[in-house]
Write a structure and sequence with these properties.
With about 180 residues, the protein is α/β, with parallel strands linked by helices. The chain has helices at about 5-15, 25-35, 60-65, 80-95, 115-125, 135-140, 170-175; strands at about 50-55, 60, 70-75, 105-110, 130-135, 150-155, 160-165. β3 (about 70-75), α4 (about 80-95) and β4 (about 105-110) form a beta-alpha-beta unit.
């Protein structure tokens, strides 16, 4: 997909609230987005916190990502473009998990203001992908880049292989598997 189309999708994701859903006030989202760093450049190192608590109470360890390809996926329960992308991320996760150590690692990072809406969203849809909530501490050590959803692929050497802001279509998500 061309970068202009992806940027337009990313920008519109922040401008289109979902009616009838609990969501972060649009002014808060816009304020946070204005402070967000740009997407990391391909080839730059991407450091991970030593440990991240997942929504299910388990922990993701940076040590587990050493020598593995990791897909980081920032999303929100109120984001309509995340709602379109997440089922494909879930399918990627299930396919890669079946490959064991040869598959991609995945960590979905919810930017909801509280963890419970993210937990509820995942449970309602039957998603099993490993997900964490962006705590204030995690926001400082692994800030969400500009856009939503955001997908960053971190290579075996800890450097960014791919970074995308905005909705990924099924073929875009399936193409992430080439990094495994």
């Amino acid at each position: 997909m061309d970068s202009l189309r992806r940027r337009l999708i990313a920008a519109s994701a922040l401008a289109v609230p979902l009616a009838g859903r609990a969501q972060q006030p649009l002014a808060d989202v816009a304020s946070q987005e204005a402070k967000a760093p740009p997407l990391p450049a391909v080839g730059t190192p991407l450091a991970l916190p030593a440990t991240i608590e997942r929504l299910d109470g388990t922990h993701f360890s940076a040590h587990d990502a050493e020598g593995r390809v990791l897909v980081l996926y920032w999303w929100a329960s109120w984001c309509p473009f995340c709602a379109e992308t997440t089922p494909h991320i879930e399918a990627l996760w299930r396919a890669q998990r079946a490959l064991g150590d040869k598959g991609l690692l995945l960590l979905a990072l919810s930017i909801d203001t509280q963890p419970q809406p993210a937990r509820d969203y995942l449970a309602r849809r039957g998603y099993t992908l490993p997900a964490a909530w962006m705590t204030p501490a995690l926001r400082r050590t692994l800030p969400k880049p500009r856009g939503l959803p955001v997908t960053v692929v971190r290579g075996r050497d800890g450097r960014v292989l791919q970074a995308e802001a905005g909705q990924l279509f099924p073929e875009d998500v399936q193409a992430l598997a080439r990094h495994a």
